[in-house]
Amino acid sequence: MTAPEPHKVRVTREHARELLRQMILVRRFEEACIELYGAQKIRGFLHLYIGEEANAVGVMQALTPDDAIVATYREHGHALIRGIPPTAVMAEMFGKATGCSRGRGGSMHLFDVSRRFYGGNAIVGGGLPLAVGLALADKLRGLARVTCCIFGEGAAAEGEFHESLNLAALWKLPVLFVCENNRYAMGTAIERSESVPDIRRHAEAYGIVAEEVDGMNVVDVEVAARRAAEAVRAGDGPRFLENHTYRFRAHSMFDPDLYRDKAEVEAWKQRGPVVRFTQWVLDTNTLHRADIDAIETEVAQTIADAVAFAEASPLEPVEDLLRDVYAPRPAAPGAPAS
CB–CB of 37/9 below 8 Å? Predict the structure, then answer.
């Protein structure tokens, strides 16, 4: 790993432990989801974040509880690191009423307004205009808050990507755009779909300051995210990060993953974020093997508790299934209030 900028991030023992704990939490949570999916306890679509953990963990260090997050359908890691309890996330994966979206959203639609986590959005690029709207509301109210919009490079092919960047730049909105470029979108190599594969250049075309980041290095991501978030919070307009990362699993559990060479996947695994940061903390004596074993034990218990909670949680009552689907019928003029 490269050394962090000392004036931006000082990787103390405590900070290193927390970064590693968070990445391991996301990794082990999703590994558990794979087993639970095979057991048909988790159903529907399941898009895994394995290999990309440094992005969620690094970016979240730069955000405050007052900031907003708009994520993609590959958002388990973002939700967990934002602070949505693993019990609520796992219950949502099970479709249970105790889930963060009351079991109605599942894997792709994690949501928690109390933590300003606005999805989990299943439509590719669909979160971009939502983020612009949230940021516009903050600017009109004079609030020094950041809206962090996270999306994959596949969203750059969508019209709302360009519309959203244009308006954010034109109105100097407080948006931190984070592109998690995992190179394959749904299953097409970026070089085969984009005439300009450097996604940050698309942002620069709209006058947005953009930066390229090693998305497999959690410290690099944190440094870049803190720098960008500070500029956004100061009123300098939007910022754009292109985090180069790689997913180790297929696009989804339904994907046979026939579009990339297995040797390429294995090569990326050797520089995976958990492997690299673990080796770095050991090499620098920042943490010791006993510390890492303790983290693994702690995380294993957290996952076990989350699964037990989800298993024991109830499904939504049938009589509530139409709740929040239709707006209440307005009372007739002159009718007495109920």
Answer: no
List of residues 6+ apart from 314 with CB closer than 8 A = 96, 97, 98
Query: Is the domain covering 13-310 a CATH 3.40.50.970 domain?
Result: yes
pTM, rounded to two decimals: 0.92
Where exactly are the structural domains of the chain? Answer: 13-310
For tokens 């707006």, what's the residue? Answer: 327
Contact 89, 309 (CB under 8 A): no
Distance from the first to the final alpha carbon of the chain: 64
**Token pair in block for residue 172:** 């100097």
Question: What number of CA atoms fall less than 13 Å from residue 217's CA on the CB side?
Answer: 12
Phi and psi at 3, nearest 5°, equal -70, 140
Q: Give the C-alpha separation, 94 to 33, whole Å.
A: 10
- Dist CA 215 CA 54 (whole Å): 6
pLDDT classification of 236: cutoffs 50, 70, 90 = very high
Q: What is the pLDDT of residues 258-302, one digit of tens each?
A: 999 999 999 999 999 999 999 999 999 999 999 999 999 999 999
Is the pLDDT assigned to residue 7 strictly greater than 60?
A: no
